[in-house]
Design goal:
The complex is a heterodimer of chains A (600) and B (223). In chain A, the strands form 2 sheets. In chain A, strands 1-2 form a two-stranded antiparallel sheet. A two-stranded antiparallel sheet of chain A has the order 4-5. Chain A is mainly α and 600 residues long. The mean pLDDT of chain A is 95. Chain A starts with a helix and ends in a 5-residue tail after the last helix. Chain A contains 19 helices and 5 strands. In chain A, helix 4 packs parallel to helix 18 (514-543) and helix 17 runs antiparallel to helix 19. Among the domains of chain A are: 207-248, no CATH class; 411-595, no CATH class. Chain B is mostly helical. Chain B has 2 domains: 1-69; 71-222, no CATH class. Helix content of chain B is 56%, strand content 8%. In chain B, strand 1 (72-75) and strand 2 form a beta hairpin. In chain B, helix 5 (165-179) packs across helix 6. The longest helix of chain B has 61 residues, at 3-63. The mean pLDDT of chain B is 92. The chains are: A mainly alpha (600), B mainly alpha (223). Chains A and B meet through helix 1, helix 2, helix 3, helix 6 and helix 7 of A and helix 1, strand 2, helix 3, strand 3 and helix 4 of B.
C-alpha cells in the first residue's frame, strides 16, 4: 500500500465527486419527457421518429403494472433477437473468421446474460463471436439493458416524489431518451478517447504476425473432437509444436467497450476482458474505465436528491455507498499487496504483491481498485483474474456482490436496490423507536415492506439454493479448475455473479456445459426480474400515497445517523445471509494459507 | 323464476362480459407492447448498433489509424507483432516476457486468458517453483535470489507486453553478455523502453519487451 496508490485513490475519489453533480443534473433533463438538452437539434428528430414507429398511444403515462409488463415484453423480445443472431451468425455479415453458431444452451445463456445486464461470459469473444454478433447481438443489450435499469430507477424515484397518482412515467419514452440523450453521446466521445489510448476499432480479419523468434512448445495432444488425449496413467499426451506465427484478434472494439463500461455491462470483447492490452491499453484508459463504471450510478443519487427536493438525502445515500466502497477497496488492496506467502516461500519477491493473473501496467493497486469497483456495481468487467486473488482479496468482490450491488451499483439497479434498503432501514428504525415509519412524509406500510422483502429474499434464496445444488452435483463439480475451499468459491462466485447480474467470474470454472449454462441463465433471470417487479410494485404503491408535510417529528433521511443506519441495514442483511457460506470458502482458505502448508 | 335470480344471472353475465372485455384490452395492450418492442429494436438497433460503431470506426481510422488497427509493427513489409501484445522470446540474447497462459502454447493473441489458479493451487506452486529455478539458472543469479513476482507468474491476459523494471534489470547482464554490449548500454535501453507511470502518477512502470528487443536488434545490426 504505497504512496502512489494513495494518490491514485484520492484522484479517483475527486474525479468521481466532480462528475456526480453535472451528470446528475443532466439526468433530470433526460428523464423528463419534456426536458431539453443541448443535443435536441440533432436527436429530437430521431426521438420523434422512434415514437412514431412505436405508436403514439404507447407513449402515454403508465401505471406500475403496465410499466413492468413493458419491461418484461421488451426484454423477452430482445432476448429472442440476440438468441437468433447467435444461432445464425454463420449466415450473417461481418464474420471474417467464419465462426459457426453457438450451441443452443450457450446461445441461451449468452442472450440471457446480455439481456439482464449481466454479461457473464461462457464464450470467449475472440474464438466464437463474429463482429456482427458482438456489435448488434450483444452491444444492443449493452445499451438497452442499461437504459432499462435507469428507467426503472427513475420510475421508483417518481413514485417516491409524486403525490396521489398511479403513474410512473412511460417505459418506452424513458428507454428511448436514456439511450439517445445519455448513453449515445457519452459513448461516442468515450470510444474515441479509448482509441487514442490504443484500443482497436476495425472490421478486418485477424492479423498474422511472423514471430521474430519462432520457438517450440509442448502442448497437450487433442483428438479430432478437441478432447485432450490421456495416456494410461491419466496424464495428457504431450507433443512438440513449432510456433512461427502469432494470430492477433481484431474487431470493432472501442465502440463496444465504451458502452460496456458506461452501462455497467462488463462483457468483454475478448476473453481476457479489461486485462487484454487492446481492451485496456494504458493506465489512463484503466482509470477512465473505472470512473465510467461509477459515473452514472453516482449521478443517480444526485438525481434522487433533486427529484425528492432533498439534496441532502441524495448525498446521504451517496455517502453510505461511498463508505462501503472505500472499506472494500482498502481491504482488497491490502490483501493483494501482501502477496501469496506460499509463493514467497519458494523465492518470489513478496514486495511485488500477488501478481498471478495481474498486468504489470496496472499493478496491485489498480487491479484491486478495479475488482472492487466492478463488483460494487453490476459491471463485472475485469482487469485481472479474480480467481487468482488471495483468499481475502477475492472475498471482497464476492461479498460486494452479496450486498446486492448497492454500492453505487449497476446503472439504475444500484439506486433501486439501495432504495429497497432505505425502506428497510426506515422500517427497522421505526420498530426501534416504536413509531410508524415514514419515508419523505410517506407512510411505509405492510405492502411496502412485503415487496421490499421479496426483492431481497428471492435473489438470496435462489443464490444459495443454486450454489448448494451445484456444489453437491457431479455436473457442478466437474467444471472446477481448483479444488478444496477454492472450488466452493468458484461455484459460489458463479451463482453470486449471475444472480446479481454482475458477470465477473472466478473464471477457472468451466461453466460452458448445458447444465451450468441453463442454471446460470435462470439465476440471471431471477436476479433481474424478481427484483425489478417488486421494485415497480413498491414504486406504484408509494406513488399513490399522499406525503404528510415534513415536521420536526419526521424521520430524518439525511445526516450521519441515517447514513450509518443505511450501511448497517445493508451489512446486516448481507452478513446474516452469506457469512456461513463465506466462512467455508474464502475464510477457511485464508486460515489454511497462513497456518498450514496444505495445497490443493 | 323469482326476480332475484334473474338479477343475479344478469350480474354474472355482465361480469363475464366485462372480464372478457378486460381480457381483450389486456391482449390488445400486450400486442401493442410487442409492436413497440420490435419498433425499438429496429430503430435503436440501427442507431446504436449501426450508425454509432461506424461513426467511431470512421473517426478512429481517420484520427488514429495506427492504433485503431492494433498498433502493428512492420518489418520488411511483414507484420511481426503488435506493440501492445506480448510475444514469446526464449533466446539468450533477448529479454523474456512474463509467462503466459493464453491458448495451448501461450502468447496466443486470438485466445487470451489467465491461469485462473487459486492461491493454494498445487499446480501454481509447481509452476512457480519450476520458473524460479529456470530464471535463476538462465540469468546466472546467485541461488536464493528473490525473483520479481511478474517474472514467474502468468498475467491475466497472457499477453502482458510489459515486465517490471526489476525483472528487466536482472536479465540485463545475460543480454549484454550474449550481445557483446556493455551492461550500462543495455540498461539505457531499458530506461528508454520503460513506459509509465502515465501522467506521472497512473499505473505501475513497465518495460515493453517487444519494443526493447526490436531496438536491441536494430542496434546490433548497425554495428
Amino acid at each position: 500500500m504505497n504512496l502512489m496508490g494513495w494518490i491514485q485513490l484520492a484522484v479517483f475519489i475527486i474525479a468521481l465527486l466532480a462528475v456526480t453533480k453535472p451528470l446528475g443534473v443532466y439526468l433530470t433533463h433526460v428523464l423528463d419527457q419534456d426536458g431539453r438538452t443541448w443535443l435536441d437539434p440533432v436527436l429530437k428528430p430521431v426521438e420523434r421518429f422512434t415514437y412514431a414507429i412505436i405508436g403514439r398511444e404507447s407513449t402515454t403515462e403508465q401505471d406500475w403494472k403496465s410499466y413492468a409488463l413493458s419491461v418484461l415484453v421488451f426484454s423477452a423480445a430482445g432476448l429472442l433477437f440476440t438468441y437468433a443472431i447467435l444461432r445464425l451468425q454463420e449466415y450473417l455479415p461481418l464474420n471474417p473468421q467464419h465462426f459457426g453458431p453457438l450451441s443452443p444452451d450457450l446461445a441461451f445463456n449468452t442472450a440471457t446474460s446480455f439481456t439482464t445486464n449481466t454479461n457473464w461470459q461462457n464464450y470467449a469473444g475472440e474464438t466464437s463471436m463474429s463482429y456482427f454478433s458482438q456489435m448488434v447481438g450483444l452491444a444492443f443489450h449493452n445499451f438497452v439493458s442499461a437504459a432499462i435499469g435507469i428507467a426503472v430507477a427513475a420510475a421508483l424515484v417518481r413514485g417516491i416524489a409524486s403525490q396521489k397518482t398511479k403513474n410512473l412515467g412511460n417505459f418506452w419514452v424513458d428507454l428511448t431518451r436514456v439511450s439517445l440523450y445519455l448513453l449515445l453521446p457519452l459513448c461516442i466521445l468515450y470510444a474515441v478517447f479509448l482509441i487514442s489510448q490504443g484500443m482497436i476499432q476495425n472490421f478486418k480479419p485477424y492479423d498474422t504476425a511472423q514471430l521474430i523468434e519462432p520457438y517450440s512448445a509442448q502442448v497437450a495432444q487433442k483428438d479430432s473432437s478437441g478432447q485432450v488425449i490421456k495416456d494410461a496413467q491419466g496424464s495428457s499426451v504431450m507433443m512438440e509444436q513449432r510456433v512461427e506465427t502469432q494470430s492477433i484478434a481484431q474487431g470493432p472494439m472501442a465502440s463496444q467497450v465504451a458502452i460496456k463500461m458506461l452501462g455497467t455491462n462488463g462483457g468483454g470483447f475478448f476473453n481476457a476482458n479489461g486485462a487484454h492490452p487492446f481492451e485496456n491499453p494504458t493506465p489512463l484508459s484503466n482509470f477512465i474505465q473505472m470512473l465510467s463504471i461509477f459515473a452514472i450510478p453516482s449521478a443517480l443519487t444526485y438525481y434522487l436528491g433533486r427529484m425528492v427536493k432533498n439534496q441532502k438525502h441524495g448525498w446521504s445515500v451517496w455517502s453510505a455507498m461511498f463508505i462501503m466502497f472505500l472499506v472494500g477497496a482498502l481491504v482488497c488492496w491490502w490483501a493483494e499487496s501482501q502477496g501469496n506467502p506460499r509463493l514467497s516461500a519458494l523465492g518470489v519477491d513478496s514486495s511485488f504483491g500477488n501478481m498471478e493473473g495481474k498486468e504489470v501496467r496496472f499493478g496491485i493497486f489498480n487491479s484491486a481498485l478495479w475488482a472492487t469497483v466492478t463488483t460494487d456495481t453490476s459491471c463485472g468487467a475485469v482487469n485481472s483474474m479474480h480467481d487468482s486473488f488471495t483468499p481475502l482479496g477475492g472475498m471482497v468482490p464476492l461479498f460486494n456482490m452479496h450486498l446486492g450491488e448497492v454500492v453505487f451499483g449497476g446503472v439504475g439497479s444500484g439506486l433501486y436496490g439501495m432504495l429497497i434498503f432505505v425502506v428497510l432501514a426506515i422500517f427497522l428504525a421505526g420498530l426501534m423507536v416504536g413509531r410508524t415509519p415514514e419515508y419523505l412524509g410517506k407512510k411505509i406500510e405492510s405492502y411496502d415492506i412485503k415487496v421490499a422483502a421479496l426483492a431481497i429474499l428471492i435473489p438470496s434464496i435462489a443464490l444459495l439454493g443454486f450454489t448448494a445444488v451445484a456444489a453437491a452435483s457431479e455436473w457442478g463439480l466437474k467444471g472446477l479448475n481448483n479444488s478444496g475451499p477454492h472450488g466452493l468459491s468458484e461455484i459460489l462466485y458463479a451463482f453470486t455473479s449471475a444472480i446479481n447480474n454482475n458477470g465477473s467470474a472466478f473464471a477457472g470454472l468451466s461453466a460452458n456445459t448445458p447444465l451450468y449454462n441453463t442454471s446460470l441463465a435462470l439465476a440471471m433471470l431471477i436476479g433481474r426480474f424478481f427484483v425489478i417487479i417488486p421494485v415497480l410494485a413498491l414504486a406504484g404503491n408509494l406513488a399513490g400515497k399522499k406525503a404528510a408535510p415534513m415536521s420536526s417529528g419526521s424521520f430524518p433521511v439525511s445526516g450521519i445517523t441515517f447514513t450509518l443506519l443505511l450501511v448497517g441495514a445493508v451489512l446486516l442483511v448481507g452478513a446474516l445471509t452469506f457469512l456461513p457460506v463465506l466462512s467455508l470458502s474464502p475464510v477457511v482458505e485464508h486460515f489454511l494459507m497462513v497456518n498450514s502448508t496444505q495445497l490443493f | 323464476m323469482d326476480s332475484k335470480m334473474i338479477r343475479s344471472d344478469a350480474r354474472v353475465a355482465e361480469r363475464s362480459i366485462s372480464s372478457r372485455k378486460a381480457e381483450e384490452m389486456g391482449i390488445k395492450a400486450l400486442l401493442e407492447m410487442v409492436r413497440a418492442s420490435l419498433a425499438v429494436i429496429v430503430v435503436l438497433g440501427i442507431v446504436l448498433c449501426g450508425v454509432y460503431p461506424l461513426v467511431v470506426f470512421g473517426i478512429g481510422q481517420l484520427g488514429f489509424p495506427d492504433k485503431a488497427n492494433g498498433s502493428l509493427v512492420q518489418q520488411d513489409g511483414k507484420t511481426i507483432g503488435s506493440r501492445l501484445i506480448a510475444q514469446n522470446f526464449t533466446g539468450k540474447e533477448y529479454f523474456h516476457p512474463r509467462p503466459s497462459a493464453a491458448g495451448d502454447v501461450g502468447y496466443d493473441a486470438s485466445s487470451s486468458g489467465g491461469s485462473n489458479l487459486g492461491p493454494l493451487s498445487q499446480k501454481l506452486s509447481d509452476q512457480v517453483k519450476e520458473r524460479i529455478e529456470a530464471y535463476i539458472s538462465e540469468n546466472s543469479l546467485a541461488p536464493g535470489t528473490k525473483v520479481p513476482a511478474d517474472a514467474v507468474t502468468a498475467s491475466g491476459s497472457g499477453l502482458d507486453p510489459h515486465i517490471s523494471i526489476a525483472n528487466a534489470e536482472l536479465q540485463a547482464a545475460r543480454v549484454a553478455r550474449e550481445r557483446g554490449m556493455p551492461v550500462e548500454e543495455i540498461k539505457n535501453y531499458i530506461r528508454q523502453y520503460t513506459e509509465g507511470p502515465q501522467l506521472g502518477f497512473l499505473g505501475d512502470p513497465g518495460v515493453n519487451v517487444l519494443s526493447l528487443n526490436l531496438a536491441l536488434n536494430t542496434a546490433g545490426s548497425k554495428k
